[in-house]
Every structure is written in C-alpha cells, then in structure tokens.
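How a chain folds remains the central question behind the approach discussed here. No coordinates are needed to read the tokens, only the vocabulary itself. For completeness, the protein is quoted in full, as a sequence line and a line of structure tokens:
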Amino acid sequence: MRGVGVVRRLCGSAKPAVPRSRVGISTVEELRKKEVIEQMVRGNHACEVLADAMQKGAQVVTIRTCQGYPSPRVTEMENTLIDYRARPSATVNAFIPVAFAFGAITNMIGGHISTVCNNAVAQAAVLHYNSQIRELNDEEINDPELRSKILQRRDEAEAKHFETNVEKSEVTQHLTTAVGAAFSIVKFVAERF
C-alpha cells in the first residue's frame, strides 16, 4: 500500500500516510530515539555477519570444516533486528565476499598477520561498542536490554582483543590503523543504508 501514501500526498490530502514502522510514535523525540536504536541494531548485525564471514574465510584456508552458518552471534543479532523492527542493512550482502576474502587472505599470509588483523578487528569492535554506549547515555535512551546486549558484545570483543599478545611494531600499527578505518567505514555504511 505504499502507493496510497504517495497518491494522498500528491492529491493534497491533509493527513500524510504514516509508515508502518513509525506507527505509535507520537513525538519527534520518540522518532529520533527509534532511529538511533535502529541504526545501532542494523550496524551491529552487519558487523556480526561480516565477522562471521571472516572466520569462515580463515577456516577454509586452514582446511577446517566451517561450522554451521549463521553462527549463534548472528542469529542473536537477527532476533534483535526483529525485536526492534529494524531492517537489516542493504549493503551487508555486498560486504560478505570481501570479509570472507579478507579472512582467507590474512590466514594465507601467515599466523602473525592473521593475529594482528583479528586483534585489530576486535579493537575496532570495542571502540564501536563503546561509542554506542556513550550514544545511549547522551541520547538518554532508556533501553536496558539493548544496553546489556551491547555491553556483553563489548566484553566479548575486549576479551578477544586482550587474549592475543601482539608485539608493537610500525607495521602492526599501520595494519591496525588500516583495518580499524575499514571497519569504521563498513559500520558507517551499514548503519545508514
């Protein structure tokens, strides 16, 4: 019934059609809060799907059998999308082959580079989740369930980041910066589109 709203607006109807996802939202503040939450959930879902694709790429190279797809983390994020009535990112399917190839290539290059890249992704994820927690505090979005899920994800990423002991060198710093920048770009695109 999408065309009905367009026809009403073109014909000058005083009452514009309300999208189904916005039904029940009465104030601008509530609309902004819903948009912020939808962006967070959409970005988190995309990041989990891509992290899972990276792991699958790495497993293929080491001739390990890939575990069932999707992983429990991805399934949990898909359920969160449903809970918040948020759509998945339209760009996630375009990034899956890139993430798969990234995981495979870094694993083919060698153990140290693979460890540095995994550590950089975990570090970028921790920064991403910390910014979301700050945004939840700034926007005063009272959603304890979402906050607890984000805190749990952050703690998991932080544990993964600190369990690998990577020596600090100029090459690892540049690689970490590049992977972190790529992660930020993908997250930004996934949240918006």
The first helix runs from residue 2 to 11.
